[in-house]
Amino acid sequence: MYDSGGISLKPSDPSHAMMKADMSGAAAVLATMSTLKALGCRNQVTAYMMCTDNLPSGSAMAMGDVLTMRNGKTVEIHNTDAEGRLVLADGLSLAAEQKPDAIVDIATLTGACARALGPQMAGVMGNNQKFVDQVVAAAGATDEQIWQLPLEQKYRTLLDSYIADMKNVGGPDAGAITAALFLDEFTSGLPWAHIDIAGPMWSDGDAGWLQRGATAYGTRLLVNLAENFKLR
Fold first, then answer.
1. Is 37 a known active-site residue?
2. At 129, which helix (H) or strand (E)?
3. Is 165:72 a contact under the CB 8 Å cutoff?
4. Which residue among 20, 37, 73, 85 is the active-site one?
5. CATH number at 14-52+64-228
6. Local structure of 75: helix, strand or coil
7. How far is Cα of residue 80 from the mean position of the Cα atoms in its chain?
8. Is the pTM of this model over 0.85?
9. Which of 110, 112, 155, 213 has its CA 20 to 30 A from that of 169?
């Protein structure tokens, strides 16, 4: 929920102070569930919020640690600031165990996505184009701008580890894509879409419906997606 970077400590700059908004993904999920109940949504929706702080301490994870995830896969830690995908991975594994028709996750996951798409647009990737298309349609209907990035399997080798099934980071290039490829390892092949809101989670000034500060981006999108979801 608050991400200092852990042992891979973030610099003392405005981006560090802004980490109080790093809970925007979980907040969007909570707000969505409250809204769906009020609207009487007829689709069955289950929500999971993976909440933890990422702070340096005597018990903090360190580079080189190997974690065994909920689905049994092992992950070598190469950057403790890439912790969001670790808690998301266990959440995705838990969701996949329930065998839903589709899974969508939303998170302030990568600075790479924010750098690529800027502060008013989220990125989306997924393993099922028909479901990704529903996410993109929901974004269009709610004016929450989104752009699909490729889930390029050729980049999966960037996550390879000598001592574990994978590393938790893929290097300096294609960071948003390698983060999504990491998450895809925990979906059990179910239709899945990943929404990276690191850019539009925060606005330095009023811009359209985006208010200054934390924007609540993703709530309207998820509500529309849940209400209009169709099994294809």
1. no
2. helix 129-142
3. no
4. 85
5. 3.40.630.10
6. strand
7. 16
8. yes
9. 213
